[in-house]
Amino acid sequence: MDGLIGAPVRRTEDLRLLTGRAQFVDDVGLPRMLEAAVLRCPLPHALITRIDTRAAGRVATVLTGAEVKAAVVAPQPVVWRNAPDMRLTESYPLAVDRVRYPGQGVAVVAAESRAAAEDALELVEVEYEELPAVSTLEEALAEGAPRLYDDWPDNVCARTTVAAGDVDAAFAEADVVLAESFRFARQMGTPLETRGVVASWDPFTGKLDVWLATQAPNFAREMLGEVLGLPVAKIRVRTPDVGGGFGNKFDFYGEEVLAALLSRRTGRPVKLIEDRVESFVANAHSREQKIDVEYAAKADGTITGVRGTVHGVLGGELGSIAFGPCYITAACLTGPYAIPAVRMDVVAVVTNRTPYGSYRGWGLPKANFVQERMVELLAARLGLDAHAVRRRNFVPPEAFPYQSPVFVYDSGRYADCLDLCLEAVRKAGWAERVAEARARGTAAGIGYSFHNEITAFGPTRIVNLSGLLHSGFDEEIVKVDATGHVIVHTGQSAMGQGIHTALAQIAGHALGVPLDHVTVVSGDTDSCPYTGYGTGASRAAAVGGAAVLTAATRLKAKVLRIAANLLEASPDDLVVEDGRIFVAGVPHRSVGMAEVGDAAYRRLEGRLPEDELPTLSEREVYDPVNIATAFGCTAVLAEVDPETGVVTLLDYLIAHDCGTVINPLIVDGQLHGGAAQAIGGALYEELSYGDGGRMLTRTFRDYLIPSATEIPPFTLAHMTTPADHIPGGFKGMGEAGVIGGGAAIAHAVEDALRDYGVKITALPITPPRLLAAIKQASAR
Ligand code: MCN
Fold it and tell me: Does the keyword Oxidoreductase apply (predicted)?
């Protein structure tokens, strides 16, 4: 496509963000506003035996868990329920009588300032009776383990199975069966802007105004309505600029409810901004899983069956999305490979840790790590080249649409993408660099991984089938105003990923106007349309973009009809270029969008065709018929110091396909950002719990996100396989960079240490873990 779709334009959002003009939730200042702070229990598991707020109540407004429970009409909603007999936890924004994870809130206060609120917290007297903590998967599953919920028979909150084909036959007939176990540490997204909310309750109208750093304003509004017992029409959620979401801000939390209750209690606006230490304990944690798998294969490398168990290590209560990511790990474990027989059990347990939730990539990075590690291990066992095993098992182009165990993949050219990556690595001379390094006595190696990604989530039917009690459609509105300017009202949220620019490009492309003639408005449930899901699962560009494209295309037809009337021509003879409409081949007979706008809104007489209604506005509700599968191949060049266990990444390459690219600059940036998070997840980041279940990770000194010095140069290569079922052919890619990094880095480390025969089965590959693996390999 020519025009704005595909153009590498700079992001329209950035000037404001880079010059400090952004307005985040913490910048919202309202008259008479109070600030709130939460008292958090440091113990992992305890009964609250006494809580006395009288002293604090003399200087501030205080709510305890019991008071919050009495003030709401429903517990915190769990919207992702993908197991038949799932046990739900009855959770409230504050612990009522029992604390089930370190950092859980037990009281909240509102005072004239945050400092005053923190001072008031010190006056709240709480006594606890500590209970034995269940901090690990093994502790949770142990015979006779203490139970987090007295009315449950054990600590298992859900069991479910993803199954397809005849697994038993596949294993009975296999030439080789390979078994392995993988561990993933707890990790989380760490947006620079921590979570925050301002709530303002109007006692006269009964309306609740909320400013919230969220990826899903409609979702948050409905959850607030459910918990507070308010009709959603009485709630307005606005999202100012969001300083990174990364999934944390997709989920719905108790703090939103606390701010609203405090505002209702005091009759004043209340702001609640979490600090960084709180962010580590109170934001959704993710990734922690143990995955046991067995692969059945033929001697030629054909994988015939997969079976095993995904153990999800959840926290002390269910977050809004419960164990959704663990289910997605199981559902997507076969990745780009045509494996006919699958039986993956999912067992989700509760532990005395922070609740589990969303983090960019959801279950896919773990599914990819397991799948790619098994491909490499299988190749090694069979004496085959790993890429040959990949090629043998790839879903071939002619097999699409392809039914995987849960999702139908729409399209893909996996072997071509692998070739693209290998060619780019060859051109970059990595083999020579490894040979040189090894000649110098340095352990260097190259690793690969191949991934596919379910994006454009997704038909409401599939969203519902996979357990989410929400929908997968988007509503978008495109208008031309009386001055000819284009306005897109979207339900999607901007959180740094450039969605405003992308939607403006699509609308501008369809209507034939330059980018600076388009404004995108988002982040206000009163004025923006409904999106059934919110912004996550790499869906905004594909689902929202398709809706904008369709609405703008329809709007263009009306623009042309009005222009034809003004020009006394036929609409079929008109073309639009750079905001001017003219008879093809006669550019001097033209009208501008401003004249068309004027004719549609203001001076209608004799200008607006008689059979047309005034205004220029089109609304499109789009529920895609399927997800769209993007895909990519990651390659990593690394050096390892076997004495210290330190891994240094020298170079990083991703070959990628996300269908029609809207903005190549943004796509590259998204891949870079995602890859940086993959690197953090593969080498550094770990939320640690010490003896007795206390949480040890409280600052960025403990939680090591990679900085610029740890990030290697990136090279990207692109190809395009459009999603034919989506208008525009867009596929999503906002999570792509984070998926393939773990396995590729592990393979590079193994390759560098090939003389030692090291096997990587856990992430992150921290120096102590790697040294232990080297020691273990040397002992064999
Ligand atoms: N894009 C494109 N062409 C395509 C697809 C995407 O040009 N075919 C560009 C668009 O500019 C779009 C961006 O890539 O705005 C991401 O598009 P998409 O894949 O639709 O992802 P979403 O907008 O749905 O964003 C969500 C995704 C997720 S789930 C997380 S988490 C995430 C992310 O993207 N969090 C981010 N990227 C992030 N980037 C930043 N800077 N900050 C975050 O918090």
Answer: yes
Q: Which atom of ligand 1 is nearest the CA belonging to 242?
A: 44
Pocket test for ligand 1, best of 490, 538, 726 (most atoms within 8 A of CB): 538
What pTM value is reported for the model? 0.97
Does ligand 1 come within 6 angstroms of the Cβ of 244?
yes
Which atom from ligand 1 is nearest to the alpha carbon of 535?
A: 24
CA–CA distance, 567 with 273 (Å, rounded to integer): 56
Task: Enumerate domains of the chain plus CATH numbers.
Answer: 17-131+191-245+249-282 (3.90.1170.50), 394-452+626-779 (3.30.365.10), 473-518+534-622 (3.30.365.10)
Indicate the residue type of 68.
V
Give the residue from 46, 14, 34 showing the smallest Cα distance to 130. 46
Q: Residue 250 CA: which ligand 1 atom is closest? A: 31
Query: Quick check: helix, strand or coil at residue 257?
Result: helix
Tokens 């919202």 identify what position? Answer: 28
Q: Name the phi and psi angles at 333, rounded to 5.
A: -65, -25
| 3-class secondary structure per residue, 701-712 | CCCCCCCHHHCC
With contact defined as beta carbons under 8 Å apart, do 103 and 282 qualify?
yes
pLDDT in tens, 323-366: 999 999 999 999 999 999 999 999 999 999 999 999 999 999 99
Q: Is the CB of 731 under 6 A from ligand 1?
A: yes
Pocket test for ligand 1, best of 497, 531, 629, 721 (most atoms within 8 A of CB): 497
Cα separation, 335 vs 210, in Å, equals 40
Distance in angstroms (rounded) separating the CA atoms of residues 325 and 646? 30
**Own/partner pairs for 568-576, CB < 8 Å, 24+ apart?**
575/512, 576/511, 576/512, 576/513
Per-residue pLDDT of 166-221, as tens digits, reads 999 999 999 999 999 999 999 999 999 999 999 999 999 999 999 999 999 999 99
Q: Which residues are 286's β-sheet partners?
A: 187
Q: Is 705 exposed, middle or buried (0-12, 13-18, 19+ CB in 10 A)?
A: middle
* Three-state DSSP state, 547: helix
Burial (CB count <10 Å: 0-12, 13-18, 19+), residue 549: buried
How would you write 156-194 as a 3-class SS string? Answer: EEEEEEEEECCHHHHHHCCCEEEEEEEEECCECCCCCCC
**How far, in Å, from the CA of 188 to the mean position of ligand 1?**
18
Cα-to-centroid distance, 733 and ligand 1 (Å): 6
